[in-house]
């Protein structure tokens, strides 16, 4: 494993862990304090879905440049979106209590983690291109 790949994985897992902790427990505290009627009991644990998904991505990650890396990234985003829709569908069909709050909260977490991953990998790809240009 190349040093750059190892550094990337370490930084990604650290950032993902911090985002999960901050958004999970911080989001729960914010919702309990500001909007207690809209608080969802699952709120602190929702980011774990995205955390484990990120860990799966890191496990599948290989130093693929160009289209292979892009395909892996986009494929994981599509798979996550389909699983997201499936989980929302299951929850709304099985639980009749406060579906709207759950869906909106889960969607907010989806967008937060999507933004994190997109920005993180955009910076990583830019570094790869810059390093290839210097060689």
Automatic annotation (TrEMBL):
Ranges annotated as spanning the membrane: 12-36, 42-61, 73-94, 106-124
Keywords attached to this entry: Membrane, Transmembrane, Transmembrane helix
Superkingdom of this protein's organism: Bacteria
Name this protein carries in UniProt: ATP synthase subunit I
Organism encoding this protein: Alistipes hominis
């Amino acid at each position: 494993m190349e040093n750059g790949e190892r550094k990337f994985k370490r930084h990604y897992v650290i950032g993902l862990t911090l985002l999960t902790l901050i958004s999970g427990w911080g989001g729960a505290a914010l919702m309990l304090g500001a909007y207690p009627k809209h608080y969802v009991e699952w709120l602190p644990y929702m980011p774990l879905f995205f955390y484990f998904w990120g860990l799966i991505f890191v496990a599948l990650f290989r130093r693929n440049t160009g289209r292979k890396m892009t395909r892996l990234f986009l494929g994981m985003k599509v798979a996550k979106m389909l699983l997201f829709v499936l989980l929302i569908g299951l929850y709304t069909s099985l639980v009749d209590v406060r579906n709207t709050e759950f869906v909106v909260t889960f969607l907010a977490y989806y967008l937060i983690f999507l933004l994190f991953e997109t920005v993180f990998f955009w910076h990583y790809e830019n570094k790869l291109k810059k390093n290839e240009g210097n060689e």
